[in-house]
Write a structure and sequence with these properties.
Layout: H1 3-13, H2 17-30, H3 39-64, H4 68-92, H5 98-109, H6 113-126, H7 134-140, H8 143-160, H9 172-180, H10 183-212, H11 214-232, H12 241-264, H13 269-280, H14 286-294, H15 300-330
Helix pairs in contact: 1-15, 2-11, 3-10, 3-11, 4-5, 4-7, 4-8, 4-12, 4-13, 5-8, 5-15, 6-13, 6-15, 8-9, 8-14, 11-15, 12-13, 12-15, 13-15
Length: 332
């Protein structure tokens, strides 16, 4: 599809049912409605989306096989997972206490699965091609930021000699084990493996599950995310305007880095677009959960309020179509 056609369709994408349910969730949350998705149902929806995404990626990999494009895309993903949190920390430590800066940098250095899944759905609807291996790229980009946070936080503690603080923090090996064996991440990778092994026959048999149900489940989950985003907005009230600006400008900067890397290594426009989405996203589930016990000195209201209250809505409503359009214009 020509880039100009994608650009014309961007406003129409805001009328997509899944996006409209997200907006509805935000409005209901701002109205302080008692509308709520039970936590166990929300967890099921999250696991379903990851499983369906993994299957889709696995089926695509079974069809395309191992190639240079796959290796290059995954290499770029790992590089971004190391570069983004480092740059974020260098910028944030100028306006935040060191450990808060580490926590926010790790949050923005990791990825949002729901942002990625929404982007995949957007590209599917628009008929845009992308590699199924990008689901693996998402999985690879989650943990490096956690490793970065633990190492830098321990360095900061030693530098400031906060007596007794490190004794209450779990060991590096325990934290890494928790992040690398996270159930959601393992489900994604396991579903990809199932997709690769079952191939076209598996795709046909799982179509009602991983295809037909996908859009409705995504809409239901985005409704829940809209409610959570609205309720997290309160956590950034009264914060420095610089932090609010960072929440909205950092995704653009990180997406720009991804675009430059994709251009340098001649990635296809579809893969580049999803790489931009991943680089621009921020974690609001996996990394904050680890940070609560890895860096207890940092403020959860800060890094969770920024990522879920501001960056996530920005990416869902404006960022995704913007990144995809730019990728298809630059890498035409």
């Amino acid at each position: 599809m020509p880039a100009i056609d994608i650009l014309k369709a961007d406003m129409q994408s805001l009328l997509d049912p899944a996006i409209l349910f997200f907006v509805f969730g935000i409005l209901a949350g701002l109205m302080k409605s008692n509308l709520e998705i039970p936590s166990q149902i929300a967890k099921f929806l999250s696991l379903y989306l990851l499983m369906a995404l993994g299957l889709k990626g696995g089926f695509a990999l079974a069809h395309s096989g191992l190639n240079l494009q796959l290796v290059t895309s995954l290499g770029c993903a790992v590089a971004l997972a190391l570069i983004v949190p480092a740059l974020a920390y260098l910028a944030l430590k100028r306006i935040l206490p060191a450990l808060d800066a580490v926590a926010v940098a790790a949050t923005y250095g990791s990825v949002s699965a729901v942002t990625f899944i929404t982007a995949v759905q957007y590209m599917d609807v628009k008929g845009l091609h992308y590699g199924g291996h990008m689901a693996a790229a998402m999985a690879l980009m989650e943990s490096p930021a956690i490793l970065f946070a633990v190492i830098v936080a321990n360095t900061v503690r030693k530098r400031h000699a906060t007596a007794g603080a490190s004794a209450t923090v779990p060991t590096l090996s325990k934290i890494l084990h928790e992040s690398l064996t996270d159930g959601a991440q393992l489900l994604l990778l396991g579903a990809m493996l199932v997709g690769v092994l079952s191939g076209d026959a598996g795709k046909a048999s799982m179509q009602p599950f991983s295809g037909d149900l996908f859009k409705g489940m995504l809409a239901f989950f985005l409704l829940d995310m809209g409610l959570k985003a609205a309720r997290n907005l309160a956590q950034v009230r009264g914060k420095s305007p610089l932090l609010i600006a960072y929440s909205l400008l950092a995704p653009l900067a990180h997406a720009g880095i991804a675009l430059g890397m994709a251009s340098l290594f001649s990635l296809p426009a579809g893969d580049a677009a999803l790489l931009m989405v991943l680089a621009a996203s921020a974690s609001y589930i996996a990394v904050p959960a680890v940070l609560r016990f890895a860096i207890p000195e940092a403020s959860p209201a800060l890094y969770l309020g920024m990522s879920l209250g501001l960056t996530f809505p920005f990416n869902i409503l404006l960022g995704i179509p913007l990144y995809i359009t730019i990728a298809h214009i630059v890498l035409i």
